[in-house]
Amino acid sequence: MNSFHFGGTRHRAQREPGSDRVRVDATLVSVQQDGPNRFVAPLDGRSERLHAVADGDQVWVHWRGRAWALQRIDATRSSAAGAAEAAGTAHAPMPGVVVSLLVATGQAVAEGDALLVIESMKLQTTIAAAAAGVVIELPFAVGQTFQRGAVLARLEPTEAS
Known about the structure:
Layout: E1 2-6, E2 9-15, E3 21-24, E4 27-30, E5 32-33, E6 38-43, E7 46-55, E8 58-63, E9 66-72, H1 80-86, E10 89-91, E11 96-101, E12 108-109, E13 114-120, E14 123-128, E15 133-137, E16 145-146, E17 151-157
Antiparallel strand pairs: 1-2, 1-9, 2-3, 3-4, 5-6, 6-7, 7-8, 8-9, 10-17, 11-13, 11-16, 12-15, 13-14, 15-17
């Protein structure tokens, strides 16, 4: 079972055993592999292409210029990477370069707000806030390069009301 945020909403995804379908919340989606780390899935009557790369307990999905981290949920063990994301640290899904900073240190952001844009292999990806908080660190300036796993933004999470 994986969970991810899309459009400000948390979703759950699980592969149906023995099939090419994935259950996203209550909807079954047929997913076909279209090459290494490339997939095609129908969405709203159209075939959508996406890229996916596994990294430990996370699967990074790149679709329509954005990247999402799908976190494996396993009650029997914890993931340091998942804990860091929950604590408000955005990590680089792949090596690349910072294209633009969309927020500033000290700025309050909501879950899903765009923080910065990165580029890797000529694809631009928007890195979004995993939770509401205040931006406390943006370690890279526009034009600087980084490696996969680098901290791209750090937030001080706001208390839940």
